[in-house]
Amino acid sequence: MIQISSLDFSYAESGFRLTIPEVNIGKNEKIVIVGPSGTGKTTLMNLIAGILVPRTGSLTIDGVDITQFEIEDRQDFRAVKMGLIFQEFELLDYLSVLDNILLPYRVNAILQLDQTVVDQALRLGESVGLGKKLHRRPGNLSQGERQRAAVCRALLTQPAILLGDEPTGNLDPRNRDQVMDILFDYSQKVSAPLIIITHDQQLLSRFDRKIDVTEFVT
Amino acid sequence: MNAVFYMAWQYLRYYWIKTVVLVSSISVILFLPLGLQVIVQQGSAMLTERAESTPLLIGAKGSAVDLTLSAIYFKQPVLDPLPNREVFSVNQTGLALAIPLHMRFVAGDFRIVGTSLEYLQFRQVRLGQGRDFAILGECVLGATASKKLGLEPGDHILSSPAGAFDVAGSYPLKMKVVGILQDAGTLDDEAIFVDVKTSWVIAGLAHGHMDVTQPEAESGVMKREENNVVANASVLSYTEITPENINSFHFHGNPEDFPLDAIIVVPRDRKSGIVLRGRYEEGADPLQILVPRDIINELLETVFSVRDYIMMGSVGVGIATLATAFLVFMLSIRIRQREIQTIRKIGGSSRRLKAILACEILLVIGIGTIIAVGLTLLVSQFGMSLAGVIFG
User: Among B290, B313, B341, which residue terminates a domain?
Assistant: First the structure.
């Protein structure tokens, strides 16, 4: 599903460089990216998401080399194909929980918001235990509830790939397990690769394999 | 609801204090020049219209502006009076109609205008109820004065005393309301019209009292001479003119010398007006003749220059405000970098992001503009009455 080949990326200002000869990630695979801080885990995830573009090499998803896309096309591709979850949840304070879940549909015209989508968002919210809190602001939710809302936002578009940058880094073990269960269930159900960055050793055993980015830093 | 509008609206609604401050600043900065322009335009139109419909004015020498404002807009007269004989003198020339104006007194907040019936015809003010004043002590109320005082034909109104230290005898006079004028939309609506002789009664130049030749007034008689009786204050002076006592009212002195504050002169034609102006301008009389339109135009030129200065100031303040608002938006975008990055990361398009931010700015400017236009419309509807309330 995801093939990275002869990829070379560097930050001009810091001299940091990432060189990846070859990485393949299949459908339904659960991958954990590990490595010490500052070794390029988030950079690798941003490359897979099309947020960053390598200097050379290719990164194909479902046979499409996204490094050849213009920025707008990469944004559209990401909106349609990928679900992203962040450590700090990144919910917008001025939107209700429901509107935060619906956010991808309001920030990219390629996704059409209609009643079916709203119903789907309501169902998702219900399924993660936010049913009665969908009209509250994120500031009125607990950490675990906020991350569940962020997960709903990532899952609403029914993405083909799930990417998580330390999604459980700020959660207690109970909430951590709950969030990870949701992500694993989804990945299993739709055969979507799940790629997660984490420092949590207790989670490592749940993944099929790990990618250590220190191997790619030059 | 359109997604761009929805996102922008949600943001503005959540950060409502910032939105209110920005919207208020923009409304005020737009409203100041707009509202000022409307008020100046309406005010100048009203001033000009009334001045243009008044061909000439005669009054005592002094400030032409004061004379015009008092004769046309019923402001308290400040110039010396002129003698009533000027009315006869103008009429005798056959060049124009002279309409006397005496405006020293008020009843409550409304000026009592002593004049002749020709005034109402000249201003084309029609009666809504009742009849014109005909005899001493009768008055006709302007539409607004009637409404505010709650008076109708048959009611009475008391003139206000001229002052606690006025020993000349300007007693309050109880006047009978005999007519109400139709709403003319001019300052005539706010006046009380009486015959000029009634004004002189209020001024104490004419009065009525008990018949001192009768036995019941004997106790007040101090001295009897061949043609004159001297009485003290115990002889009852009438404060109301009734059919029973009207014959006792009499003038002291020569009516030709009685005071007027101004004379409206309506020339038969343009040439007559020029001839009449020539006579007064060349004469050595302590009088002046003037064209109200010219005086008001001069006054308005001053008003317009003040307005222009304010407008220039407003433009400067406006530019500064818009620059500040721009800065606020720019800073806001910097503060929101993380939010913008999140939206980009989850697939938000740059075009949609720009549209949302632009929509926020347009909404603030739009709401500010709508409020400014609304305020300007309010001012255009009620501004003059509001100015009247504020400035009396």
Answer: B290
Positions in chain A short of pLDDT 70: none
Identify whether B172 is part of a domain.
Answer: yes
pTM: 0.71
Q: What is the average pLDDT score of chain B? A: 86
The answer to whether residue B345 neighbours chain A at the CB level (below 8 Å) is yes
B349 in the same domain as B329: yes
Q: Are residues B321 and B387 in the same domain?
A: yes
- Only one residue has tokens 């007519």, namely B179
Q: What is the pLDDT of residues B230-258, one digit of tens each?
A: 666 665 666 777 777 777 777 778 888 99
Encoded tokens for A166: 């330390």
Helix locations, chain A, DSSP H: 41-49, 71-81, 97-101, 103-107, 115-127, 143-155, 173-190
Domain limits at A35?
2-215
Specify whether B253 is located in the same domain as B130.
Answer: yes
The nearest alpha carbon in chain A to B4 belongs to: A106
Q: What is the pLDDT of residue B41?
A: 83
Taking each helix axis as running N to C, give the angle between helix B337-345 and helix B292-335, from 0 to 180 degrees, rounded to the nearest 10: 60
Q: What is the value of ipTM here, to two decimals?
A: 0.91
Contact B302/A at CB under 8 A: no
B353 and B286 share a domain? Answer: no
- How many structural domains compose chain A? 1
Q: Identify which of B14, B347, B350 has the shortest CB distance to residue A94.
A: B14
